[in-house]
Amino acid sequence: MSRDDPIRHHKVALVGNPNSGKSALFNALTGARQKIANYPGVTVERKAGRLALPNGEARELIDLPGAYSFDAASPDEEVTRKLVHGEFEGEAAPDVLVLVLDAANLEQHLVFAQEVLELGRPTVVALNMVDLAERDGLTLDPEALSEALGVPVIPTVAVRRKGLPELAQAIAEADAHADEEAHSRWHLTLPERRLAAKHMAKGAILSKSTRHTIENGIDRVLLNPWIGPVILFGLLFVIFQAVFAWATPFADALEGGVGAVSALVTDTMPEGFVRDFLTEGVLAGVGSVVVFLPQIVILFFFILVMEASGYMARAAFLMDRLMAGVGLSGKSFIPLLSSFACAIPGIMATRSIPDAKDRLTTILIAPLMTCSARLPVYAVIIAAVIPQTSIGPGIGLQGLVLFVLYVAGIVGAMAAALVLRRTVAKGAASGFIMEMPRYQLPRLKDLAIGLWQRAWVFLRRAGTIIFVVTIALWLMLSFPKAEPGESQMDASVAGMVADGLHPILEPIGFNREMSLALVPAMAAREVAVSALATTYAVDAADEEVAAEGVTDKIAALWSLPTALAFLAWFVFAPQCISTIAVARRETNGWKWPTFMLVYLFALAYVFAGLTYWGAVALGL
Amino acid sequence: MTLDAFEHEKSARITAVDWAALAEDEGKRLKALGVDEGAEVSVIHRGVFGTRDPLAIRIGRMTIALRRAHALAIEVEPA
């Protein structure tokens, strides 16, 4: 967008309480073409889009973070306060404000509304979700409200596109006065504002039936102290099933597609550096990123549905007691849940945690959740060294070991949180205060926009990092070239690094091949499998055949204590440069990612060692 | 009586809030949500699996989740 673009001239901003339907209104006004970035210096998302006015002109529309007050209690509110007051460095104050109010919760939303109107900026009120207010038995009078507030009030239903042309018209009219000087109004205190809000809400409500809101009925079941958690765990079970079962065919298809392109390149290009670079570096890098996309899209779909329907706040409520036990709150639940697919979206999701220490702790423990990249490693090692015996009706020993590895990750994360909250992330016991939004049927378009945005952010962030790292590692593995008779892995830079690592890892039972596999596995854990295949000179084009070959080799060459130590290592080891890079981004520096690397590698070393020597002592 | 001990689903009026017992941000958040002296609230959910934490309260047309520690800082009387 150039500086001369008319859209640059004036800026319109949506402002309002959380749960006012602001985002849905933003989607309805701008469509799918949105620009998402961070506000400079803070990890608060800046969403901007293009708003078409009835006169054919266009304005930049930004969706400010939801706020209860300008007396900021969270980083989100601080951004909104600074921006609206024109105190944000590098971003001018918006010229026109669109104040979004929940029609069914006027008495509450009118408190912040008065704070916004005190600024004296050109303002239009969107009386949003009037349909839900009607569902709750409320009949409203927008004119009375407009008179009380002194600005135009437009009833809207964002999700049904009701009232949008009228709102755009009102914005255009306010925009025409945007260059006039602001007339700040009389400032009221909070109790005065609350009293005024009560009167204005009363005056705007024409009739009110005593009908019970549907929330009470649904919450009676979903928040029931006994049934509620059972429903939540049932839902989580379904989500896990979906993430791991439904994603497989898509992941296979994507992998097959990348493989086909790779084969095409191999067939059509002459042998040499460029071809190897394309197939083993570039395409392998692309492949290792896109293979996670189906799982992440499916997981995000469920998370978005939970968020849009209003259930997410209930899930946080139900999990709060459990999380409080280790010094966290219910708000850490969702990021940690996401981390079972991949720690990268999990760490990005910590932005919804208002308390800084809570958020830091959640970022630091997110890599301990068993992400999907660990599964190929677990699967190969378990198949190689754990017998396929049954230890009870329907319980296989192999499955039990896998289950133990998952539990070890969760227990490790909880123990780490407990320690971190008492040491490096010390702070007042994190509170848990949150508004429970009303239940709503999620709209397909909003889900689609949200899904696209999150998938794109993942591809862009993780994609570029994994891609660069894969290529760097490929270079490390390919150079210097091996002499005839020498293996490439041994001769390469990576081989030299492994030689340096081996003496350190030998005491915990790792052999040289394992040390070698750990180097390329820094890109992503599952690379350990193909690296082992390369070291054992398993010559197989297909990954499954390669895995089988590796399984046979491991079964023949590794002792049981060694294999168990390798599994224990992968429960803790932060073998994922992308996670480290995202942690750097989200904590604004190298301090915490460095800490994360050190403490997780230390845990991995200690627990792999304990496993090895424990197993040796038991005579396994 | 504190809100923590108040009867389930009965209307209560807040008579005093011990702001000093709450973290600054938590106090701000509660105030912004309307949990302040004079407000009418009712406890509608309490705890999970027999615990007393967290609580969900009804204030106006909103439902708010908070912890027992917060409810213990809120003095109420029957409304």
From TrEMBL, chain B:
InterPro entries: Fe-transptr_FeoA-like, FeoA, FeoA_core_dom, Transcriptional_repressor_C. This is FeoA family protein. The keyword Protein biosynthesis does not apply. Keywords: Iron. It comes from Qipengyuania profundimaris. Residues 1-78 form the Ferrous iron transporter FeoA-like domain. It comes from the Bacteria.
